[in-house]
Amino acid sequence: MSDSPTVDRTDHNVIELTREEALTLLAQAPFGRVVYTHDALPAIRPVNHLLDNNLLIVRTRLAAQFSTTVRSRSGIVVAYQADDIDIEHHTGWSVVVTGIARPITDPARTTHYQRTLHPWIGSPMDGVIEIEPTLVSGIRLVDGAPAHNG
């Protein structure tokens, strides 16, 4: 038996976010999770990102699985998820972006993102990948009275 009390709360609502609201929250998030296919299986990696000109930008090592997968197949579809959930209060948000991932090969753009998007780990991050957010969805978990239908 757990020492934690069981919380059975019905005073929260789920609100669907618009595309613009979801992208605004995503731009504020410090990191997210990229979901891609590797050897026909789903793979998930946490990465930090930035949103620039409606493109999601991530840096990676050229030898990393994600980078290798993107470079080996033209225009692969990936998902990217970020959230900010308050476990104690059961509030927060979650955003999922699905779109085409492409390596950035333009030297000027690569240099720009190497200067503006700083990796969290000590390994050299020599690759830059953009994800075009084709499908954008999100929810917000909020305090409030239960929604009434009718």
Radius of gyration: 18 Å
- pLDDT under 50 segments (min length 5)? none
Shape assignment: elongated
Distance between the termini: 40 Å
Strand order in the largest sheet: 2-3-4-7-6-5
Q: Please give the number of β-strands.
A: 7
**% residues in beta strands:** over 45%
Count of helical segments?
3
- Helix-strand topology string: EHEEEHEEHE
What structural class is derived from the secondary structure elements? Answer: alpha+beta
Task: Provide structural commentary.
With 150 residues, the chain is of the alpha+beta class. Helix content is 19%, strand content 48%. It contains 3 helices and 7 strands; from the N terminus they run βαβββαββαβ. A 6-stranded antiparallel β-barrel has the order 2-3-4-7-6-5. A hairpin with a 2-residue loop joins β3 and β4. It is elongated. The N and C termini lie far apart (40 Å).
Provide a brief overview of the structure.
The chain is an alpha+beta fold and 150 residues long. The chain is built from three helices and seven strands, in the order E-H-E-E-E-H-E-E-H-E. It has a six-stranded antiparallel barrel.
